[in-house]
Amino acid sequence: MTATGTTLVIGATGTTGRRTAAQLAAAGHRVRAASRRAAPVADAEPVAFDWYDPGTHTAALDGVARVYLVPPPGDPDPAATMLPFLHRARAAGAHRAVLLSSSAVPEGGPAVGRVHQALPGLFAQWAVLRPSWFMQNFTGSHTHACGIRDEGVIRTATASGRVGFVDAEDIAAVAVRALTDERSPDADLVLTGPEALAYDDIAAIVTEATGHPVVHLRLSYEQMRDRLAAQMSAEFAAMLAGMDLAIAQGAEDRVTDTVQRLTGRPPHTFRAVFEREIRGTR
User: Fold this and answer.
1) E strands, 14-133, in order
2) pLDDT tens readout for residues 187-229
């Protein structure tokens, strides 16, 4: 890796951001860790950053060569906020941008899909990471993890649809290569784990690993949408429930070689990640 200059990691306290910042720093790169409260991040320079407060953007971008972009969470139209920032980043001297999107959102699609579409026209060096659903959804503070701990239940509208769940550590490893390799990917990269699993499979693995019974409760689209709407905007809830419906119809039943190809090692399995994560919380 031959990257010079500072890398700005937006969302540096989040699921992929903190792992990306940590891996960049461990490899000897200069990291500016952006979060709303400028939270301390080991071996990185913390900076206050709020997508909705342009006054925080100047200091965050000062001297930055590369940017890891995590969209504002829960925003159904992040392009309205992100595109002005990206123009500003390019004007400030950033020459490479790596965007975190989703395997469920194609270029030009809803939400961050519009940012994906615009990125190649804004930066000569770029990559869009489109990971499948995070394995950490079952171990952290996500609704699924809470349901496992509190009720022994995972609720989805995915029926028997399968997903190539991916480890956030693997996403970060790909992000580091996309940000710092001499040659930029300049590509749309779909990231998965090594196997596609249904939520019934996840429940079975969690049951075996913890010794406590966990079941997958199958909801209808409407039930899932209404449940999510109690926690977020109706528009965003409908979009997420629609993603579950797409999984039920086979949209995420795939695996890719992206992690192996960019990092030189195979992606982690769900069983290995779940056991690693729960060991870390005990």
Assistant:
1) 30-35, 45-48, 64-69, 96-100, 125-131
2) 999 999 999 999 999 999 999 999 999 999 999 999 999 999 9
pTM of this prediction exceeds 0.90: yes
Q: Environment class of residue 227 by beta-carbon count within 10 Å: exposed (0-12), middle (13-18) or buried (19+)?
A: middle
Could you tell me which residues are beta bridge partners of residue 153? 215
Query: What residues contact 33, with CB distance under 8 A and at least 6 apart?
Result: 9, 12, 13, 17, 21, 39, 41, 44, 45, 46, 47
As a whole-number percent, the residues of the chain with pLDDT over 70 amount to 98
The size of the chain, in residues, is 282
b vs e for 78-110, b when ≥16 Cβ sit within 10 Å of the residue's Cβ? bbebbeebbeebbebebbbbbbbbbbbbebeee
Tens digits of residue pLDDT in 241-267 = 999 999 999 999 999 999 999 999 999
Q: Do 65 and 7 meet the contact criterion of CB atoms below 8 Å apart?
A: yes
What does the alpha-carbon distance between residue 35 and residue 158 come to, in Å, rounded to a whole number? 33
CA distance 122 to 179: 16
Q: What is the pLDDT of residues 22-69, one digit of tens each?
A: 999 999 999 999 999 999 999 999 999 999 999 999 999 999 999 999
User: DSSP letter string over 130-184?
Assistant: EE-SBGGGGTSSSHHHHHHHHHSEEEES-TT-EE--B-HHHHHHHHHHHHHSSS-
